[in-house]
Amino acid sequence: MKLHLVLATDNHGMRSFILRLRQLPPQTVGLLAAVITVSIWSAFIVIARASASRHLLPLDIAWARMVGASVVLLPWGWWLSQRAKARGEALGSLGGLSPLPWHITWRLGLFGGLGYAMLAYNGFFFAPAAHGSVLMPGFLPVWTSLLALLLLGERLHGNRLMGLALIISGGMLVGGSSLLHAFDGGTVWVGDVLFLCASFCWSTYSVMSRRLNLQAIPATIAITCFAFFSFVPLYTVLAWLQVLPSHLFTAPVSEVLWQALFQGGGSVVISGITFTQMIRHYGPVRSTMITSLVPGLSALGAVVILGEPLGWHLLLGLSLVTFGILFGVRKAPVALAKA
Fold first, then answer.
1. Which of 308, 282, 307 is nearest to 140 (CA)?
2. What are the structural domain ranges in the chain?
3. pLDDT digits (tens, 9 = 90+) for 88-131
């Protein structure tokens, strides 16, 4: 009797909490989404770089990310599909696990799920976290602005162009330094290129989400479904047969579980939903501009936690990128701010 009373009380409290969240003003929801996204993205860069010195290889971490996210999101997708079926609506794809049609699921999943993860994790095995801080979240406004211009017809005013010029200058300062050492046998430039490609993938996903006016949860479930079915079974078999280099079956179980929890549960489930919600509220360009805190916070975290050096070129490049993003936010016109 007491157990039933406790459960009833907990359910009532949860329903009340969800009801309060739904009653929050859109501005509050957008702000909360931005804060959560920035916090997780900053931690993601530091943890991903720290993982490069552990047991798991880049694709192992991507595997853990996809499995961890799938544990939560695949049952969620099935539940949404069952609700849609009960209402007489069309089912999504991948056996009803993705709530979105296949032609949308594979495009979102290719860029926002599979492509981003594989490129980003490989990048951290070549380049330090500070480079990832500048070239991944820092370059999102550049790619997103170009894609929004081509696909959404959003205009780039003079002040935003100035901000983008500062970002590109900072990126060239950071990436150019590693390119100078490429002929000396350095490999940091490989990581820089991978970071830029990962940034482009995420920008493509964000613009497509905005263009299709997708809700946060179905979009996140869709990219996870595609990444899971297109990568996890094949990589598991190849890693087990030792066709590909992998430490997936020899690394400590605790390390695999931790990566699945943070990379899957945190970076995909939580920040994936909050980022898409932020896009819906602020628009793709302003959303990526809001991530101006990520380069500085993650670079500082890499110095304090990982002991990475922060040379003058990195510090100057980081400053240019951060100021460029802030400049674009501060000077955005009213019409765009309400997008």
1. 282
2. 28-337
3. 777 788 888 999 999 999 999 999 999 999 999 999 999 888 88
